[in-house]
Amino acid sequence: MDEITFDDFLKVDIRVGSIIKAETFPEARKPAYKLWIDFGPSIGTRKTSAQITDNYLPTELVGRQVMAVVNFPPRQIGPFMSEVLTLGVTDNKGAVTLLGPDKKIPNGGRMH
User: Is pTM, for the whole model, over 0.85?
Assistant: First the structure.
C-alpha cells in the first residue's frame, strides 16, 4: 500500500453521527441497509447504503453512533443516492462491524 502524508490524511473528513433511520434495501445487489445518519447542525442528515446485514438488524441500528467519511462525492447505488461512507471492519468471514466511539459524542465531531 502506498504511503500518504499527514496532509493527505487531513483531507479525509471523518465525523461521528447517529443513525436516525434504518431500513432494508431490497434493490441492492448484495444484502444491505439504507441508513439516515444525523451529523449535527453543521452537516445535517445524510444517507448511505451499508452492507452490514450479517451483524445488525435495522431496529438495533437506530440511535447507534457511527463514524463516516462525509466529504466523498455522492454515489448512486441502484435507485438510492449514497452521500457518505460509513466505516467498518470485516471479520474473518467477511461480515462488517461498524466503527463508532465508545462514549456518546456530539454528532458532527471530527476524528483527529
Answer: yes
**Does residue 110 lie within any of the structural domains?**
no
Evaluate whether residue 106 is within a structural domain: no
Q: What are the CB-based long-range contacts (under 8 Å, 24+) for 49-55?
A: 49/25, 49/77, 49/80, 49/82, 50/86, 50/88, 50/96, 50/98, 51/96, 52/86, 52/88, 52/96, 52/98, 54/93, 54/94, 54/95, 54/96, 55/95, 55/96, 55/97, 55/98
pLDDT tens digit sequence for 75-96: 999 999 999 999 999 999 999 9
